[in-house]
Predict the 3D structure of the following.
Amino acid sequence: MDSMPINWEALDALIIDFAKSENLIEDSFSSPPSSPSPSSSSSSVSSSSYHSRLIIRQIRRSLEAGDIDAAVDLLRSHAPFILDDHRLLFRLQKQRFIELLRRGSAEARESAISCLRTALAPCALDAYPEAYEEFKHVLLAFIYDKDDQASPVASEWSERRRFDIAGLVSTVLRAHLHAYDPVFSMTLIYLISIHKGFCLRQGISSPISDLTTRLLLEERDPPAIPQESLSEAPPFDEVDIQALAHAVELTRQGAVDSLRFAKGDLFQAFQNEICRMRVDVTLLDELVREYCVYRGIVDAGLASSSVVPGMQSPSKSMKVDQSVAGYSLSRDGSHEVEYASKNSDGEVSISTDQRRGSPEKNSDVASMEGIEVDLRYACESTSNQEDCSTSGSHQPENLRVPQRNRTNVSAERSKRKRWRGRQDDLGFIPGVSCNQISKGISSNSLVSDTLSSKEKQASECLVVDVNNVDKYEIVLEMKELASKGMAAEVVEGVNSMDPNFFGQNPLLLFQLKQVEFLKLVSSGDCSSALRVACSHLGPLAASNPSLLKSLKETLLALLQPDEDALRKGFPLHALATSLQVAIGRRLGIDEPQLMKIMRATLHTHNEWFKLQMCKDHFESLLRIDFLKEVNMPSLAAAATSKSNADSCSNGSSQVTISSSARMVEDGSSLSQVSSRDVDENAILKVMEFLALPRADAIHLLGQYNGNAETVIQQIFA
């Protein structure tokens, strides 16, 4: 799983789309408007879907807190069509009746009786066939106490009913408003679901089980029931029914109901079902933030403060000098951290970002002329940064970091984003996350805990390790140079930092010299290209015979010089990522856990559909096919197996390239074999009647000469 190559640029695009869709990032150095408004803060995101998701979350939280009146008011304002569905309206009024009784006061009891007469009883008459019986049953709540676990209405009193009705309303709203989760969120849910199923079926342990268990929750939102009668014959293709049922672990009837609710649209039904699965949003955001910092999408200095789970940390920037970082607490109690960035002329410019709309305070600007930077990284772990980062591995001593062009660094950093978090999402109940409410924690106690622990949060969360930020800049600078094909500059920079690096990573040196060779050939300087080959490629291939084939194919570029040979013939972005991982590990910065999750889950996705002997119906919708497209020329193919073996010894892949246009078979060739040996209709018939996965159906048909009737008779006999 560690050697699984991935198109990281495709993943970057998905992550950026996710962060923008959820309004998690903003421009780093753009000056904020003088009077910020909600409309201006959300102008950079897809407003309709984003605001629809916000409304759904608010309605959900109201229902989970037992505030049915607030939820109905929001529905009446934003989605009145929901209240036209008498089935949902009856459930809402029944829950409102229970919540009024739960208060226990005489006034609330009178309100419950009024609700019963004016709202609940009329709805029960035409909601659905069983509604009137449920209405009569819920009347027992007048007699049996909410704490009586043996009462016939214990399930009606259970607070679990709040979450069931909240999930059902959320499911219906998502479908009608088309307020689906961003593509990356759905892709991750789907891949983790397949990963769990594959590991369980094969009886193997997952290397990412701790993360996936916390990230993908066990419970799902209840499914939406279509209006049509369930007794009518489904007018759907059996291929669609089976594809949906096995993709999201539904029964056949569940898949039929889902397709009927989506009016036969397979992809809409799939999205409805995927979004029913629940994730830990706080953990997901932290994994995305860590990845964005590592890949240079988000500025490390503006995102290195970890957010306390369930809390939204104050807006922050950082006040630092060359050796120390800290925080300050302003007089009004809001947290303020300042960030000082050194310009190319030696001055330190300090930017401040405060919360609560307090006026900006001008900080003193210290002039630091003529300071030469010579950082040495000792073997120290940054224990004061407690987030889901995997950073903290052993760091080598005395790594000399060369002086970098501050102008270029500032220009690069200005292109990055600032991590803002879910500030809009947490406006409904200050300081309380949806996950905390779902665990039954009192919102009042959470708010009081939030207010009482602000100083503790400031001291623990808003401390920035300047050295760590600078290490990210070094790694990102090398990655950027490699992605531009500036191999000679990369080698020079890495050698000045750590002369032993390429001695421990000869394959990376070989590939960088390949890039340098091809670049020289493309420019017509064949003499210099041959010198590179003689000085570096030849000796490296001599010490590693597996590289000889790659060396020969590299030299073929001399026969037909092409200006685009480098661009067409070598995956620079893949090499840049490999270099980033290796240098980062050398500096004590491990790759993000999200990269490990994607490697493991994409590997099991390949293996799962090999077993199913078919292609995934939904991989294009979820961009999984793009994540797997890692093109690689044959000139470095021989090096791949060696690099994977070396990297696996370190517990992670250093090289993210593959010798095939599609790195691992996706099952399409196996699908052709199965269709030749076993009739597709027979496969579908066995899957339908026996509720079996495709692989099991094919296996049984193979035992009985492809005769579906014989298989079914043998099983039922």
